[in-house]
Amino acid sequence: MAFEGLGERLQQTLQKIKGKGKVTEADVKEMMREVRFALIEADVNLKVVKEFVKKVSERAVGSDVMQSLTPGQQVVKIVRDELAELMGGETEAITFAKKPPTVIMMVGLQGAGKTTTTGKLANLIRKKYNRKPLLAAADVYRPAAIQQLETIGKQLGMPVFQLGTEADPVDIAKQAVAKAKEDHNDVVFIDTAGRLQIDEDLMQELRNIHDAVKPDEVYLVVDAMTGQVAANVAETFDQQVGVTGVVLTKLDGDTRGGAALSIRSVTGKPIKFAGMGEKLDALEPFHPERMASRILG
Ligand code: GDP
Fold first, then answer.
1. 96-112 per-position pLDDT tens digit
2. Does ligand 1 lie within 6 Å of residue 71's CB atom?
3. Can you tell me which atom of ligand 1 is nearest the CA of 145?
4. From the CB of residue 276, how many other CB atoms can be counted at a distance below 10 Å?
5. Distance between CA 180 and CA 277 in Å, rounded?
6. What's the pLDDT band for 235 if we cut at 50, 70, 90?
7. pTM score of the predicted model
């Protein structure tokens, strides 16, 4: 289960303050010291931790809390609200093009779960929004990538557009959009290449694809297991290519929370979906307030 360690520590800390009929500044200070340790241990970005602690502390020693009948519970609520805020506040919807097809570009480092997530998201969009997606294989460098997308397309009963490994990814993307128009597919997913690390060639290629097809959404797929590094990766992709939303994968694993709690603050971009397993239906819209409640029990 994700965030188990963080959840346990925060729950223990908040338990101490919860029932108090009177909360002093010293109580808040002591609590926030423990919250700070718990967040750092969960691999949350240090700057994010500092801002979080400052914000909660300020609200928790405010007169409305101190004078309330249940100050302990008020403080717990503030922590819950601010945790949700940290992960993005309200859930955001998908932007569909006014004139179809909607183009969704999938980007990310190799192994993050990009190709799998392309299938999962196409599946979700078909089910939830009644759309007809086309999947385009624009990762020509990893030979197995095209095959992987073909397999996913077969499993879902969805068309896959590919031009083999010799074609130019920009051409593939452009032709995929043309093909979608022809075949009345109203959403096109472009599964782009990933690398083990961020490199300039990859970024240039992604910018070229972006310029050529002007996507409605650019979803960055990041592995939650990589902690706050995921936030740095997201920041770079956003600066270099422009990202509209993040998909956090592998939240079914025992990830500590650093990625989920850092990404929004570091990049300003919303986490839109969460990958919860390897199967093609294991993707959920990301709900910050539900996630905060899950962490705090
Ligand atoms: P890509 O290189 O970014 O395209 O990554 P892949 O889509 O090939 O995924 C890499 C591995 O991560 C595969 O074994 C996937 O099954 C696995 N994976 C992707 N998303 C999730 C997820 O949400 N949970 C789990 N447990 N595994 C995932």
1. 999 999 999 999 999 99
2. no
3. 4
4. 18
5. 29
6. very high
7. 0.95
